[in-house]
Amino acid sequence: MDEELRSLTERLRNEAGASPEYERLVATEDPNVLADALTAPGQPLWARELVAFRLGLAGDRRAFEALVLLLNHRDPQRCTSAAHALARLGDPRTARAAAALATNELRVAYALHPVRLLVELRAPEAVPALITTLGRRLRPHDPYRAVALACVEGLGALGDVRARPVLSEALAHPALAEAAVRALARLPG
Fold it and tell me: Does the keyword Nucleotide-binding apply (predicted)?
């Protein structure tokens, strides 16, 4: 069993309580049963998360919309699980969705997992989205340093020279300077 799936099922078991529906959704191997549960009215959040995650790991694109919603959730554990499943889903819309979430200033508090997902996907949308997000985080007293740091580290991992100007600007920010030095060292040229 995938370690992330094991962690998710343990967490959701607690949320579900003694629900027989939980055991049914964990045990089934039928993707249609999972997809039906994903769209059935009145399903609790734990059930939607469980089936979306399982469908995502199986490469079933019916999970895409639910996983994107979970990627932008206020609960970091749900975001982590959604990012894990989206990275394995293989849906070409994933990078665009993650880039949109990462660059949405109204939801910047929840941008950490979309930023990390973009780096993992290494999609063409990743570098422009991370440059945009990091540039916005370089304002004085910006409260989203974790997002900025993820962008710096991600741009270093992606190794695209287009990131050089924003990474150079990040050198002036004490919380980002060390990571920016490492990221700049990874860029070609």
Answer: no
